[in-house]
Write a structure and sequence with these properties.
There is one protein chain. With 413 residues, the protein is an alpha/beta fold. It has 2 domains: 97 residues, OB fold (Dihydrolipoamide Acetyltransferase, E2P) (Beta Barrel); 239 residues, Beta Complex (Beta-clip-like), CATH 2.170.270.10. The protein contains 6 helices and 18 strands. The strands form 6 sheets. Strands 6-11-13-12 form a 4-stranded mixed beta sheet. The protein has a 4-stranded mixed beta sheet with strand order 7-16-17-10, with no helix packed on it. Helix 2 packs across helix 3.
Length: 413
């Protein structure tokens, strides 16, 4: 019975605050909640809920929500007793923003209930996003950090999304075609028998700066676990994971969450891999109709040589789950093969098409088209034309495009 329940989980009905409160009440330590023996009895400011000035002394007072204690224990504290300059600054920034929204110029000596309610809601929302950000960074296995930002509304973390670093194989799918390793001492300068790309009758995909140098539509064969070369081999790029700090942010034009780079990215470099659950196209067809009704889809057809498998990142994926479409994108899809060389199941690498500024949103074309290239790879290119299109049965709901580019096609599909 226990074996059948392995891997099963159910959502907790208590909030993080309630769990932390329970830990302190029953004196239980929890590493994930940051409750330990040293701080069990501490009173730490979690956020500020309200503000007023004493009518006699004009002293500033704040209503404090204490970490790990219920809101019934909130208390008014003078500013001089508080050692939380960052929280005070955030509180006044939120307060000024709300007063501007209500077209009020002066901070009143006592806030009305509507304003204090909004400030409490903002503080709780910020805390929720910070916990999500911490969770994402705890679960990532790549160097690039993840930040989360929402300055648009009060939408919080997705409730049914699990961050994973590598694709998970769905039920009934078995990876069997494992790559043979190369024996090169220097894969880029002295490739023996063409190294791993040569063994598959293709050229090396990267230059000495780690930039992709082949045209879209041609495959990338990286060195693998069976190779004699080490982890610093220049033919190991995608497998090293995301190298840049990225930010998941809420867009202001109805496109939901998006991703922007926090660092400058050069042209033709690897940015991220599209990760999710590998499923059959029959299963993708079923899920596609459900996603259509929800108004979104995260199905990515693996049409490199055969239309057999699809990557579904709806509920399991990495940061690529949040990357939006653009008709003029700055990311380009490449099919990548590393340990598994089954051409029906490539890994999906997203590379920069041009230099990307820090702060610029990352996008790729959900319906990309690949220009024909040399005859050496005609078979691959003709089957690759649809490789970047999320699964698209004949009858699909037309989704309006809001990318805003000059070449916008108006619709995603």
């Amino acid at each position: 019975m226990a074996e059948n329940l392995k891997g099963c989980s159910v959502p907790c009905k208590l909030s993080w605050d309630d769990l932390e409160d329970a830990c302190r009440r029953y004196r239980v330590t929890c590493q994930d909640l940051n409750v330990n023996r040293n701080n069990l009895d501490d009173y730490e400011v979690q956020f500020l809920c309200d503000y007023k000035k004493d009518k006699f002394t004009d002293e500033e007072l704040y209503l404090v929500k204490w970490r790990g204690y219920p809101e019934s224990d909130n208390s008014w504290e003078p500013k001089r007793n508080l050692k939380c300059a960052k929280l005070i600054k955030e509180f006044h920034s939120d307060l000024e923003q709300e007063l501007r929204r209500q077209k009020k110029r002066v901070i009143p000596k006592r806030l009305n209930k509507d304003i204090s309610l909004v400030l409490t809601q903002k503080a709780k929302h910020r805390l929720s996003l910070q916990r999500w950000e911490d969770h994402l960074n705890k679960n990532r296995n790549h160097p690039g950090r993840i930040l989360v930002l929402n300055e648009v509304d009060f939408e919080g973390p997705p409730k049914d999304f699990n961050y994973i670093n590598n694709c998970k194989v769905g039920q009934g799918i078995v990876l069997t075609e494992m790559a043979l390793g190369c024996e090169c001492k220097n894969c880029l300068e002295e490739p023996m028998n063409g190294c791993c790309p040569g063994a598959s009758l293709h050229r090396m995909a990267y230059n000495d700066r780690g930039q992709v140098r082949i045209r879209p539509g041609q495959p990338i064969y990286e060195c693998n676990a069976g190779c004699c070369c080490g982890p610093d081999c220049p033919n190991r790029i995608v497998q090293k994971g995301i190298q840049f700090d990225l930010c998941i942010f809420k867009t202001g034009n109805g496109r939901g969450w998006g991703v922007r780079s926090l660092q400058h990215i050069k042209k033709n470099v690897f940015v991220m891999e599209y990760v999710g659950e590998i499923i059959t196209t029959d299963e993708a067809e079923k899920r596609g109709h459900q996603y259509d009704r929800q108004g979104s889809t995260y199905l990515f057809d693996l049409d490199y040589v055969e239309d057999v498998y699809t990557v579904d990142a709806a509920h399991q994926g990495n940061i690529s789950h949040f990357v939006n479409h653009s008709c003029n994108p700055n990311l380009q899809v490449f099919n990548v093969f590393i340990d598994n060389i089954d051409e029906r199941i490539p890994r999906i690498g997203l590379f920069s098409t041009r230099a990307i500024r820090a702060g610029e949103e990352l996008t790729f074309d959900y319906k990309m088209q690949i220009d024909p290239v040399d005859t050496e790879s005609t078979r691959m290119d003709t089957s690759f034309i649809l490789a970047g299109i999320p699964s698209s049965p004949k009858k699909r709901v037309r989704v309006e495009c809001r990318c805003g580019s000059d070449t916008c096609r108006k619709y995603l599909f």
